[in-house]
TrEMBL record:
<feature type="transmembrane region" description="Helical">
    <location>
        <begin position="448"/>
        <end position="465"/>
    </location>
</feature>
<dbReference type="GO" id="GO:0000139">
    <property type="term" value="C:Golgi membrane"/>
</dbReference>
<keyword id="KW-0560">Oxidoreductase</keyword>
<dbReference type="InterPro" id="IPR040986">
    <property type="entry name" value="QSOX_FAD-bd_dom"/>
</dbReference>
<keyword id="KW-1133">Transmembrane helix</keyword>
<dbReference type="GO" id="GO:0016971">
    <property type="term" value="F:flavin-dependent sulfhydryl oxidase activity"/>
</dbReference>
<feature type="domain" description="ERV/ALR sulfhydryl oxidase">
    <location>
        <begin position="149"/>
        <end position="252"/>
    </location>
</feature>
<dbReference type="InterPro" id="IPR017905">
    <property type="entry name" value="ERV/ALR_sulphydryl_oxidase"/>
</dbReference>
<feature type="compositionally biased region" description="Basic and acidic residues">
    <location>
        <begin position="311"/>
        <end position="335"/>
    </location>
</feature>
<keyword id="KW-0285">Flavoprotein</keyword>
<keyword id="KW-0812">Transmembrane</keyword>
<dbReference type="GO" id="GO:0005615">
    <property type="term" value="C:extracellular space"/>
</dbReference>
<dbReference type="InterPro" id="IPR036774">
    <property type="entry name" value="ERV/ALR_sulphydryl_oxid_sf"/>
</dbReference>
<dbReference type="InterPro" id="IPR039798">
    <property type="entry name" value="Sulfhydryl_oxidase"/>
</dbReference>
<keyword id="KW-0274">FAD</keyword>
<keyword id="KW-0732">Signal</keyword>
<dbReference type="InterPro" id="IPR042568">
    <property type="entry name" value="QSOX_FAD-bd_sf"/>
</dbReference>
Length: 481
């Protein structure tokens, strides 16, 4: 009657003001301290699964536990290959994790040597974020639903149990019920036997598997076998030194999660196994896996490169636009640089200090300098007029100005070309030539409307006086004496 007693304990713990007194944890002195407590516990819903727990357990099982021996060979190497292959078939991971498992599985299949050194295995288990399809299994341990009140409670054992429950349910959902019913259970048995860090726990699980696992005849029976033996482990470990006082080991699922899973037969608690199977299939489904606190998925290298190129293309354009607005008078008067020079240089009349000279100085004629100076003033005035143009006209003028700037980059082009380009752009449309004088489209529209109304008024007056004149001519004259 261990199950019945555990449920009585569960109901008592749900009552307010009731504290546990039936047993005490065997905690050695100094085993628990303030530094071992979780400083910022994450909020979790026990009715949900969390991808952070699953990925953390995968990372620890592969990169820590499986990579603990100095080399793998024989049954250990076969157990690792079987474990990774089962994960590839049934683990509902994110795309980057699935790619990681597939690449690791292919690498292990191609390994033909009798021994696999630990250094080689660890190198093969590294992430590849630079590929077109990133192959990444997060390396941080983030426990959400499996987080304990202290760091040495729960964590990896909880996550590993969750993974194997998930795999048994996914195997039952995907494949024929009678085909390979022990596929996942055999994988779990081999992994726990060869890699699980708790040797005593591995021996207990091997004893349970040897006792009844061979009698499992379907994949749904495999789901129920793992669930019932997990509850058996919880009943055995309840009250032990591995139990978290904040998360006592109970028979699962409790009545508040699945009330239809429980029944009473002759005054004794019993399980409604069809309801339990339905609950397990719903609870350990991909739809119940949440991404809270999971590491963000990496961006593929091709997409990241495209974003970087777009960013670098935007930045010079925006930077150039800002410099043009701030330094337009200086830029208009500056002569274009020679090909290969880093940036255009203003000619100087006075000879500079030698330490400030980087190359040969340009000797400038004073007449040409004054001519360019007056041209720059004229261009500044034209630029001031262009700023007053409305936004829609600025777009049209911007293309001509941009073309002028592109032509100005070529060697041997004088400032006179910009004047010709601006004049040519204004000559292309009479409307732009009018608007260049400071009038907007609204002003032109009002002028046209006023002109039309004035014309109609004059036409009406002309018609009125014309009719009046005809009427006067039609009247009979006065009789002659």
């Amino acid at each position: 009657h261990i199950e019945a007693r555990s449920f009585y304990t569960y109901y008592l713990r749900t009552l307010t003001g009731i504290t546990r007194g039936s047993y005490k944890l065997n905690i050695t002195a100094g085993a628990s301290n303030d530094t071992d407590r979780v400083s910022h516990p994450l909020r979790a819903d026990r009715s949900k699964l969390y991808m952070a727990d699953l990925e953390s357990a995968l990372h620890y099982s592969l990169r820590v536990e499986a990579a603990r021996p100095s080399s793998l060979s024989g049954a250990q190497l076969a157990a690792l290959k079987c474990y990774v292959g089962t994960l590839v078939k049934f683990f509902p991971g994110r795309p980057c994790v699935q790619t990681y498992l597939q690449s690791l599985d292919a690498w292990l299949r191609n390994w033909t040597e009798p021994e696999l050194p630990r250094a080689v295995l660890k190198e093969a288990m590294k992430n590849n974020r630079d590929a077109s399809h990133p192959s990444v299994l997060p390396t941080n341990l983030t426990w959400v639903g499996c987080q304990g009140s202290e760091r040495h409670f729960r964590g990896y054992p909880c996550g590993l149990w969750t993974i194997f429950h998930l795999l048994t349910v996914q195997a039952a959902q995907k494949g024929p019920d009678k085909e390979l019913p022990l596929e996942v259970l055999s994988t779990m048995r081999c992994y726990v036997k060869h890699f699980f860090g708790c040797q005593e726990c591995a021996e207990h699980f091997e004893a349970m598997a040897a006792k009844s696992m061979d009698r499992v005849a379907s994949r749904e029976e495999a789901v129920l076998w793992l669930w019932s033996h997990h509850n058996e482990v919880n009943a055995r470990l309840a009250g032990g030194d591995t139990e978290d006082p904040k998360f006592p080991k109970l028979q699962w699922p409790p009545p508040d999660l699945c009330p239809q899973c429980h029944k009473e037969e002759r005054g004794v608690h019993a399980w409604e196994q069809p309801a339990v199977l339905t609950f397990l299939k719903a609870h350990f489904s991909p739809a119940n896996i949440y991404m809270d606190h999971a590491e963000p998925e990496p961006v593929p290298a091709a997409r990241e490169g495209m974003g970087a190129r777009l960013g670098t293309e935007r930045l010079p354009e925006e930077r150039g636009r800002g410099e043009e607005e701030e330094k337009e008078p200086e830029g208009e008067a500056r002569a274009p640089g020679r090909p290969g020079s880093p940036e255009p240089r203003r000619p100087s009349i006075v000879r500079l200090n030698p330490k400030f000279r980087e190359g040969a100085e340009d000797i400038v004629d004073l007449d040409s300098f004054s001519e360019q100076h007056f041209k720059s003033q004229a261009l500044q005035a034209a630029a001031g007029r262009r700023r007053r143009i409305s936004k829609r006209d600025t777009v049209a003028l911007g293309r001509d100005a941009a073309a002028g700037r592109e032509r100005r980059r070529g060697p041997g082009v004088l400032l006179r070309e910009e004047e010709e380009d601006v004049g040519e752009g204004l000559r292309r449309s009479p409307w732009l030539r009018v608007l260049g004088l400071g009038f907007s489209r609204l002003d032109i529209s009002l002028c046209v409307a006023l002109y039309f109304l004035s014309s109609m008024c004059l036409l009406g007056m002309y018609t009125f006086f014309r009719l009046r004149t005809r009427a006067r001519k039609g009247r009979p004259g006065f009789p002659m004496a």
